Amino acid sequence: MRISNRLAVALVLFASIAVSTGTLTFIATNMAMENAYRQYTKLLSSELESRRLRVQNYLTQVGYDLSITANSRFAQHALIDFTDAFHQLGDDARDTLQKLYISGNPSPSGRKNLLMTAKDGSDYSNLHLEYHTWTNDIAKIRNYYDIFLVDTDGHIVYTVFKEDDFATNLNTGKYNKTELASIYMQVIEDPVPGKIYAEDFVPYAPSNKKPAAFMGTAVNYEGDFVGVVIIQLKSDPFNDIMRYSSLLGDSGETIIVGSDKLLRSRSRFSEEETVLKTKVDTPSVEGALAGRSGIGVINDYRGIRVLSAYAPIIANRSTWAIITKIDVEEVETQPLVLMRWLILVSAIFSVLGFLLGWFLAGRDEADVQH
Q1: Which of 83, 197, 282, 346 is the Cys-Cys partner for 21 at CB 3.0 to 4.6 Å?
Q2: What is the pLDDT of residues 98-114, one digit of tens each?
């Protein structure tokens, strides 16, 4: 048999094996890819829902805390007593209290709450010694940034952490345009017992422009409206809920995005602060803020292709987007490894088929000549 004939036989066998193994490689890779996306879709959806519920439960718990506090005799008497003691100090109440509890406070900035009383002999300081331990413990246990008691005239008669807003007036003072003041004014307009008012996260000047959200409600005593209790939230609890899980692999993360499309939780991919600084304008965010839930492949805020699950969170008056995602590259890692392995096997078998065809064709030629 001529060499050309032997080559033809070998190439036919080579092509047959290559086509067969190539087809199997294509089918197996597609099945593996579909299975990988199906598994990660289920994982992302489960993680998303779990964390969404935890965020909703946390916000609900803050509301419960506000309602319980406003309905407690302790808080009601504290607000009434602090209001009376505040007004006893006259027109200089703000300057006097800020001197006693801020500038004259020996505790460092950020820890002014450690001072139990200024020991100046005033009714205010005596009351502070009586009530401060209780409110300070609530803020610590619940991981709140601050707790405010505001009288019906807008005076902040008490805070836990004694920042620059302490003892100012939310009607006429320098912080009357803040979200804190907005909570007070909403309550004043409609002081319904148990009704919760809220403002979304913003950089709050008295707290060194750290992200702050506020929730508040009316305090009534024996049917009379006596003031407002307001809680200042920090982003830490939301960061804890969104904390990285090894279930999401090397590239997965869950984030919260506000209606302004700025992060409400920290990105695990940045060493710098990202809350209220990093913008996330993606189709997933658009969908969640529009009230939809779903999952799909998009480019995320890092410019990387990801498989992204999304859903809305109703955060009191605001709508947030919660996003759980993982890089497409990681999703497709195992199917692509399988594909490369199958291609290698296909190539080996195809070459062996070529050699076998060449050998068998040569042997047939030898038999004929013999």
Answers
A1: 346
A2: 999 999 999 998 899 99
pLDDT > 70? residue 354 = no
pLDDT of residue 74: 93
Residues 183 and 117 in one domain: yes
Interatomic CA distance for residues 112 and 163, integer angstroms: 8
The answer to the question of residue 367 being in a domain is no
The two three-digit tokens of residue 190, written as one number: 């409609």
Same domain, yes or no: 171 and 213: yes
Say what the pTM is.
0.84
- Mind giving me the DSSP string for 33-70? HHHHHHHHHHHHHHHHHHHHHHHHHHHHHHHHHHHHHH
Closest CA to 239 of 206, 211, 197: 211
Instruction: Give mean pLDDT, residues 106-133.
Output: 94
Contact present, 205 and 199 (Cβ < 8 Å):
no
